[in-house]
Amino acid sequence: MRKVAVIGVGCTPFGEKWETSFRNLFVDAGARALEDAAISGEQIDELFVGNMSAGRFVDQEHIGALIADYAGLATKHVPSTRVEAACSSGGLAFRQAVTAVASGNADIVVAAGVEKMTDVGTGATVDTLAGAADREWEGFPGATFPGLYAMIARDYMHRFGLTREQLAMVAVKNHRNGARNPNAQFQKEISIDTVMQSSLVADPLRLFDCSPITDGAAAVIVAPLERAREFTDTPIQVLSSAQASDTIALHDRRDISTLDATVAAANRAFQLARLERKDIDMVEVHDCFTIAEICAIEDLGFCSKGEAGRLTEEGYTALDGTLPVNPSGGLKACGHPVGATGIKQVYEIVMQLRGEASGRQVDGEIGMTHNVGGTGATVVCSILGVV
Amino acid sequence: MRKVAVIGVGCTPFGEKWETSFRNLFVDAGARALEDAAISGEQIDELFVGNMSAGRFVDQEHIGALIADYAGLATKHVPSTRVEAACSSGGLAFRQAVTAVASGNADIVVAAGVEKMTDVGTGATVDTLAGAADREWEGFPGATFPGLYAMIARDYMHRFGLTREQLAMVAVKNHRNGARNPNAQFQKEISIDTVMQSSLVADPLRLFDCSPITDGAAAVIVAPLERAREFTDTPIQVLSSAQASDTIALHDRRDISTLDATVAAANRAFQLARLERKDIDMVEVHDCFTIAEICAIEDLGFCSKGEAGRLTEEGYTALDGTLPVNPSGGLKACGHPVGATGIKQVYEIVMQLRGEASGRQVDGEIGMTHNVGGTGATVVCSILGVV
Fold it and tell me: Which of B248, B262, B375 is the mutation pick for testing A, counting most A CBs within 10 A?
C-alpha cells in the first residue's frame, strides 16, 4: 500500500445559501481545492462524493456522475462514486479516496462532500434526517434525531453527574472558535446564558445544544506521498483512516452513552498510524449535539468516561487548551451540511497543520477527525500529520 | 495489487414482493451467499452495498450500517459502505469490494445490492427514477426515463435502419431466457406480437420494451484468489472491473445513440484483463429498455455500430448463439431492482461459469457484466473467468 498525502483543500462558506444550488456548491468547493493544489481538472483520475440525501433534499440521485459532469470531467470519463452513510458520508468518501490512491488504482483523487438542506421545509428536513436512524424502530414510532441524542444526554448526566452548564460550555467554546472561522455559519460568540435560555428542543437539549441545518460543500485532493511535492510545498500525510459500524438503532446498543463504533474506529486508526492518544495535537469531533462532543472526547480515548465535562469546563479542549477540540467551530458553530461535514473536518485539520488557520490557529503537527453517521451506527476516524 | 476471486453468491427471487421488507430482502440474499461460500458472518471483514434510492422508496438512508446490523455484523463493528450511482449502484459496490481485497485492506468482503421499489405508488416510482437523470435539465421539464430512452431509440432507428420488429426480438429473446431462470420476475415466453401489441409507453417504446419495477437483492463474496480454495472448489476470478462517467444529461452527449461511458469502461476492462472481445463467452448487459441492449452490444465492441439488430434477428445473441447476451433474462425479464441489478449480473456470470445455471446454461470460461446508471452517465464493466 502506498503512502497518501492531501495536496489541496477547498471549502465553501457554510450557511443558509438560498441564492445558490446544490451543483453550484460542489463546483465552488472543487474549484477552490483545484486552485489550492494548483492542478487542472484534466489531472484528476477519480472522484468520491459524500452525500446523505440529495434524493430527498433536491430530488436528485446519481450524484457522482452529476459532480463529475459539472466539474468538467465527464468527457474524460473519470470514474465518480457517491458514498452514503448519513452524516458520516464525507468521512467515508475520504477513506475510499485514500484507498484508491494507496492501492495504486489511481493517483490524483478528489474526495468531496456536499449537502443542500434548505430547499425543503423544516418538517421534510427533520423527516429526512430521521432516515439516518432506524426508520422502522425509531423513525416511525416518532423518534427525531434531537430526541435520540436527548436520551443519550439524560442517561449520561444521570450516570456521570454532567451538569447542564457543562453541556452549555461545549456550545460556548465551539461558538468562540466559529467566531474566528470565516467559513462558519455562526461567527458570533455566545454565553452559557444564551444556551440555557434558548428554547427547549428535546429535554435536556436546547436550541443552542444542536447543530444547525446547513448548505455547504468541501473537497480535498489526495495523491501518492512520493508525488505530493510536485503539487504543494506543504503536503499533509494521511497516517490512517478507519471505519466501524454499530447497530443502527440506539436501543440495541450495549450502552447508549458510549459509541462503540467510535471506540473501534479510533483504536483501528491509532493502530494503523502507530500513534498514541498523546500524539494528537488537535481533533475535529462530530458534535451534532453538545452531548455528542462529550461522548466523543471520551470514546476516542482522550480521557476516561465521565471526565469530558470537567475537562471542557477547565478549558482543556479550548483553542488554547491542551487538546483543542473543534477549532473550526465544529458542527455546532461552523454548521453541518451532513454529507460535507466529514470532508470539512479534513479541510480544517489540513489548514491547521499547514499553519493557515489564521485567527483560530493552534499549534501541532498531528491532527485527527471523527465523523459519525446517525447516533453512531457508522464512524470514521482519520489521522493526518505534517510530513 | 492482489488477485481477487468470487467465493460465494446469493440472489433472492425478483418480483413484486409485497409480503417482505427492504431489510428482509438483503438478509435473504446475504444468507444465501454465506451458505454458498460456506462461511459465517464472523469471517466478513467489510461490506459494500449498492442501493439507488431507499431514501425515497422506503424512507431509509444509512443503508450500509442497516445492512451490517441486520446481517449480525454490528457488534463486530465491520465497516459497511453504501455506494450509489442510480441503476449502476450494484456494479460500483462490486468494484469497491474488489478494490478493498486487491489493495489488501480486507480479505473477505461482501458486495450486495438491494432495492425495494413497490412500497410507493407508480407516480413516486417514476419520479424517483427520474432522479437518475439530470433533475434540473431533464426531470423538471418533464422527461421520464422511458422518454429519454425513446429518444435514443428514435435516433438509432433513423440512422441505422433498425426495425421495430428487431427491437421486439430483444425482448422475445430475454423472456425466453427468463423463462429458464427460477429467480426471474417473468418466467414466460413472449412473441414479437406480444411486444408489438402492448401499450405504447414512449414512442417507439412499448410496455414490453421496458424493464419492470422490481423488488430484489443479490450478494457476492470476494476474497484473495490465493485463499479462494479454502472456501470453494469453484472460485471465479475477477479479471477486471472498470468504471467510467459521462454527462448526466442525454442532450449534452456527443452522440445520444452511443454510450461513450460504455466504450470507455469496456476498453479499460479489456485492457486491465488483457483480453480481447473474442475471448468473451457470455455477457450480461444493461437492457433497461430493448434499445439499451442494442446499443450495449455495439458500444462494448462486440460488433460495429448498426449491426446489433441484425445479429439479434439472426440468433447471434441467443442462449445457443455465438455470444449469449443476458442468459439470466436481463433486466427485461429477470427484473430490475435498480441497486441490485449490477450484483445480480455478477451472480449470473458466476453461476454460468461454474456450470450451475441449469436450464439456461451456456458454454464458456469467461463472462462479462455491463451495468449502466441513468442514460449512461455511469457505467461499470467487469470481466470474470474460470480459474
Answer: B248
Q: Is B286 a known active-site residue?
A: no
Residue A133, sorted as left (phi over 0), alpha (psi -120 to 50) or beta, turns out to be beta
Q: Are B378 and A80 in contact (CB < 8 Å)?
A: yes
Complex ipTM value = 0.96
Alpha helices (H) in chain A, listed in sequence order: 22-37, 54-57, 63-70, 89-102, 122-130, 145-160, 164-178, 192-196, 260-273, 290-299, 308-313, 330-334, 338-354
A293 in Cβ contact with A330 (< 8 Å): yes
| List of domains in chain B | 4-121+214-237 (3.40.47.10), 127-211+238-329+355-386 (3.40.47.10)
Q: pLDDT tens per residue, chain A (387 residues)?
A: 899 999 999 999 999 999 999 999 999 999 999 999 999 999 999 999 999 999 999 999 999 999 999 999 998 999 999 999 999 999 999 999 999 999 999 999 999 999 999 999 989 999 999 999 999 999 999 999 999 999 999 999 999 999 999 999 999 999 999 999 999 999 999 999 999 999 999 999 999 999 999 999 999 999 999 999 999 999 999 999 999 999 999 999 999 999 999 999 999 999 999 999 999 999 999 999 999 999 999 999 999 999 999 999 999 999 999 999 999 999 999 999 999 999 999 999 999 999 999 999 999 999 999 999 999 999 999 999 999
Name the A residues in 165-204 with CB < 8 Å from any B CB: none
Model pTM above 0.90: yes
Decide if B93 contacts B110 (C-beta within 8 A): no
Asked if A97 reaches chain B (Cβ–Cβ under 8 Å), the answer is: no
